[in-house]
């Protein structure tokens, strides 16, 4: 052993006595260990003799800023272009937990879901190059559903930028389309102010902020002095003009058949929305993102609209003489009637008139605007229109109950939703994946006080599990349930291990038909033969067990309720893998063109395979003729 090694071992092993240090310029060197005299290093903060802190690592400064902004966890994967920052996060783990995901896409989707559920900033972290590319899908989901998300993205060392270094990608270019704020730090001095601005922009624009940082900048010692900016966001109060309110009141008073289409922008205004609807005798249709705003079985609720919608919602909106859009960017213009007078309420003025030609735009918070309209408009006495569709919804719910209560195998999706309905808590959080499962969940699973999260406008498969992980972190005391198809779940199922690692007892229900069911139906409705939709057999219950969680395989109806009960009583993450019969997700209203194309598909399938799979003909004819 060399002298340097012996001295180093002694220094690291033996407690040092307190030394009286006299000057700032005197240095004492012992091997590689250097003590700057006059100062004592404490928790990576250098303190002078009078206790004043004058510098610390920039990464630690940023971690403290995130805590000041209210962030309590970060999703990501360590790596060579963020390891300096990871070391600073490690020191703050009691206040700012780092959640190590298995794929950056899952981390970004979880950050987006967290922001949608709570309204708070979702934070994710990745290395340069491949890690940054993996973030994009989740960031686009946040962009499309207007969720405030911050992505801190590593970059190659600052002295290697532009040299084609290993894993170097032009990140600012790549993130330009997805982000409302997209900047790369040129120096460590900029970072605290850039971070504050990034978070403010994410909140102000309900979108994605990206901060690109070469990892060496995190390690720089940052002067401890008052920053140029502060960690706060002043939310503006927007209110409609008096003239516009008067015009809206006039239209509402004249209308005999008003209808409300509400979205997630009315989530916090449940009471005001119902009071207003009852005041003007208007049925309510909810967008996909609006599911759960009011109870599904409430007498004024006609369910969802569009491809996943109900027959009464389709008919009611086509009979209406006034459309009120409340906190929604409903994307399916073809499902909205033409030439219907419309009023739109939205807290983002730029959205007003962007999805439908409105007569009057009322910028402002839906809670406040609805209260004002209730006070200013006449109370309607004519209940014929709303009662007509209340009766139709009673019939609709009766038909759904018949399908849900079947006690037979093979299992169909409505039966699963009924078993789930009987076992979920009133305040559970439901994270729904994308595909046929979206139809089954929105149509057959009635919500009362439960929260609901899904990838809305981007509609990306694979969002179910990350959303459940995020909901369990956001609300540790609530049930967190992911409902996935086998196609969606298999896209991000690797992060079931994340739930196991962090003791997050999420429950994942997988509707397993070994194929991409929605794609099969879409191919059929254009008259095409099915191709590329078969996925092969997969036992997701065994996968869950191999990850260290629990797994339940359900192949018979008799085992369905018992398996869900057992899984929900467990304090471990669990997968309930339910083998289902293939079942077409019939829309609430079938068009003549859809019927023709579906017939073409059946003929092609018969001549190419010799088999024919018919949908529920009674239900299909009923929805075609209505």
3D structure, described in words:
The protein has 626 residues and is of the alpha/beta class. Helices cover 39% and strands 18% of the residues. The N and C termini lie far apart (90 Å). It is built from 23 helices and 24 strands. It is globular and about 70 Å long. The longest helix is centred in the middle third of the chain and has 21 residues, at 384-404. The model is unreliable at 6-44, 48-52, 594-612 and 620-626 (pLDDT under 50). It comes from Terribacillus halophilus.
* Structural classification: alpha/beta
Low-confidence stretches: 6-44, 48-52, 594-612, 620-626
Helix proportion of residues, in percent? Answer: 25-40%
Q: How many strands, which pairing sense, and closed or not: the largest β-sheet?
A: 6 strands, parallel
* Nearest-integer average pLDDT: 87
The global form is globular
Q: Give the end-to-end Cα distance, rounded to a whole number of Å.
A: 90 Å
Fourth-level CATH superfamily of the largest domain: Thiamin diphosphate (ThDP)-binding fold, Pyr/PP domains
Oligomer: single chain
Say what the CATH topology of the largest domain is: Rossmann fold
Gyration radius (Cα, Å) is: 28 Å
User: If helices are DSSP runs of H or I spanning 4 or more residues, what is the number of helices?
Assistant: 23
């Amino acid at each position: 052993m060399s002298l340097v090694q012996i001295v180093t071992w002694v220094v690291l092993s033996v407690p040092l006595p307190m030394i009286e240090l006299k000057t700032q310029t005197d240095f004492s060197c012992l091997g590689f260990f250097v003590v700057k005299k006059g100062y004592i290093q404490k928790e990576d903060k250098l303190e002078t003799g009078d206790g004043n802190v004058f510098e610390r690592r920039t990464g630690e400064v940023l971690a403290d800023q995130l805590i000041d902004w209210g962030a309590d966890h970060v999703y990501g994967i360590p790596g060579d272009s963020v390891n300096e920052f990871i070391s600073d996060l490690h020191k703050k783990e009691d206040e700012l937990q780092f959640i190590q995901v298995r794929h950056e896409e899952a981390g970004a989707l979880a950050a987006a879901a967290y922001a949608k559920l709570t309204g708070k900033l979702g934070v994710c972290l990745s290395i340069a190059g491949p890690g940054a590319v993996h973030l994009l899908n989740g960031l686009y989901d946040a962009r499309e559903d207007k969720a405030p998300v911050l992505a801190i993205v590593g970059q190659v060392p600052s002295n290697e930028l532009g040299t084609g270094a290993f894993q170097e990608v032009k990140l600012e270019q790549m993130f330009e389309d997805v982000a409302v704020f997209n900047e790369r730090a040129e120096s460590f001095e900029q970072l605290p102010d850039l971070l504050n601005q990034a978070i403010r922009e994410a909140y102000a624009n309900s979108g994605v902020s990206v901060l690109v940082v070469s990892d060496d900048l995190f390690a720089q010692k940052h002067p401890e002095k008052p920053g140029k900016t502060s960690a706060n966001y002043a939310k503006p109060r927007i209110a409609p003009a008096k003239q516009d309110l008067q015009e809206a009141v006039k239209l509402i008073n004249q209308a005999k058949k008003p209808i409300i289409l509400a979205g997630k922008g009315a989530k916090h205004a449940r009471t005001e929305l119902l009071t207003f609807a009852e005041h003007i005798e208007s049925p309510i249709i909810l967008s996909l993102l609006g599911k759960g705003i009011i109870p599904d079985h409430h007498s004024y609720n006609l369910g969802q609209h569009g491809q996943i919608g109900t027959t009464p919602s389709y008919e009611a909106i086509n009979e209406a003489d006034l459309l009120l859009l409340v906190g929604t960017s409903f994307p399916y213009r073809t499902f909205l009637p033409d030439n219907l007078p419309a009023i739109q309420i939205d807290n983002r003025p730029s959205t007003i008139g962007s999805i439908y030609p409105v007569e009057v735009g009322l910028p402002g918070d839906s809670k406040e605007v609805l209260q004002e309209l209730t006070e200013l408009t006449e109370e309607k006495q004519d209940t014929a229109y709303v009662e007509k569709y209340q009766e139709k919804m009673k019939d609709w719910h009766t038909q759904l109950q018949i399908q849900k209560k079947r006690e037979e195998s093979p299992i169909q999706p409505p039966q699963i939703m009924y078993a789930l309905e009987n076992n979920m808590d009133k305040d559970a959080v439901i994270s729904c994946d994308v595909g046929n499962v979206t139809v089954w969940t929105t149509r057959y699973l009635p919500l009362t006080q439960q929260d609901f999260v899904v990838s809305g406008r981007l509609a990306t498969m694979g969002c179910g599990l990350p959303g459940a992980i995020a909901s369990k972190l956001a609300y540790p005391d609530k049930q967190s349930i992911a409902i996935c198809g086998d196609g969606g779940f298999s896209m991000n199922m690797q992060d079931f291990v994340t739930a196991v690692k962090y003791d997050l007892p999420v429950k994942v229900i997988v509707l397993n038909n070994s194929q991409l069911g929605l794609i099969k139906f879409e191919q059929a409705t254009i008259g095409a033969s099915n191709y590329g939709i078969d996925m092969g057999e997969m036992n997701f219950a065994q996968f869950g067990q191999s990850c260290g969680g629990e797994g339940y395989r359900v192949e018979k109806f008799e085992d369905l309720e018992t398996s869900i009960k057992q899984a929900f009583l467990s304090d471990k993450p669990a997968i309930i893998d339910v083998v289902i019969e293939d079942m077409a997700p019939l829309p609430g209203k079938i068009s003549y063109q859809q019927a023709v194309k579906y017939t073409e598909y059946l003929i092609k399938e018969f001549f190419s395979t010799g088999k024919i799979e018919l949908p529920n003909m009674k239900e299909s004819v009923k929805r075609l003729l209505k």
